[in-house]
Amino acid sequence: MSYVPCKRVVCWLGQCKKSDVSRDDLRHEFAFSEEDLDDVLNNLIKRGLIHQCGRIGNKIVQFAIHSKVKELQSEVRNCSGYGQAQLRQKKVRTIFLVHGRDDVAHDGLLSTLREEGLAVFTWKDALAQMVKTRKVTAPHTMAVLNYGMESADAVIVLFTGDEEARLKDRYRKSNDPRDETELLFQPRPNVIFEAGMAWALYPDRTVFVGVGRLRAFSDISGLYVVQIPDVNDWGELVKYLQRVGWIKSPKLTIPASQKSLVRMNRRT
Fold first, then answer.
1. 143 CB-contact burial (10 Å; exposed 0-12 / middle 13-18 / buried 19+)
2. Using one digit for the tens of pLDDT, what is the confidence trace for 173-218?
């Protein structure tokens, strides 16, 4: 089996405050099938990350390395498929939006998400809320980011081509790809940083969205980025969020003229 489910469980165990967990805990958190859950648990037991203990109620799985959080985190990073965390299928109502200076793309995405019934807030909104609720007058930028991401059900990072960049001549190599040698558009550095922060802290509820042709950066190579060809068409993102269960798919309506055919097919 892929290491992806194991990676997700290890991430969760590394952050879990309990010294033991149950099958029901894991099923509720990750929506695994019984077969997948058995495979994940057996894999983690073989690797010495957890061990089975006596049944206490329904709790049958306990940390083997609970006190060694760094080893758990290292294990996560060394897992094959680390960058393929599956999005948590849960009810999403609020989105923390990370974006750059492309106001047209930002406004288009904002309108699209709100039309789908999602409440969207940004760094400025998080700052205002943090000042109001925590009574701080000058919070650090990182504290505001963490507050916004922690408060939301999910994070969407919008990559837009706000800057132009390429590698300096003296650092180039003969086998460098086009993204290194040609002047191409890329997101603002703060957006790239905040994308890394969101992925590191909340990989199972973070979505990357890219608008147009952008300069690649190697750290997210292999991660899925929802590609938007035009700022006036967000259909691909809507379909993706429907697939992962963050927004509802439209109900299929059957014309009255075809309902009799449907009933006949059901009988046969």
1. middle
2. 888 888 788 888 999 999 999 999 998 888 888 999 999 888 877 6
Residues with Cβ < 8 Å from 130, sequence gap 6 or more?
Answer: 136, 139, 143, 144, 147
Instruction: Say which amino acid occupies 35.
Output: E
Q: Which residues are within 8 A (CB) of 173 and not within 5 positions of it... i.e. 6 or more apart?
A: none
Query: Which residues form the domain of 13?
Result: 4-84
Number of domains in the chain: 2
Q: How far is CA 185 from the centre of its chain?
A: 24
Same domain, 213 and 125: yes
CATH code, 191: 3.40.50.10140
Residue 211: phi and psi, rounded to 5, are -110, 120
Distance (Å, whole) CA 152 – CA 126: 10
| Closest to 26 (Cα-Cα) out of 3, 48, 6 | 6
pTM: 0.62
The residue among 257, 13, 229 whose CA lies nearest residue 105 is 229
Question: How confident is the model at residue 106, as a pLDDT?
Answer: 94
- The answer to whether residues 28 and 155 belong to one domain is no
Say if 171 falls within a structural domain. yes
On whether both 8 and 101 belong to a single domain, the answer is: no
Tens digit of each residue's pLDDT (9 = 90 or more) over 30-44: 666 677 777 777 777
Distances from the Cα of 71 to the Cα of 64, 146, 181, 196, 266, angstroms: 11, 24, 38, 21, 55
Given a contact cutoff of 8 angstroms between Cβ atoms, the answer to whether 109 and 122 are in contact is no
Pair 194, 147 in one domain: yes
My answer on whether 78 and 107 are in the same domain is no
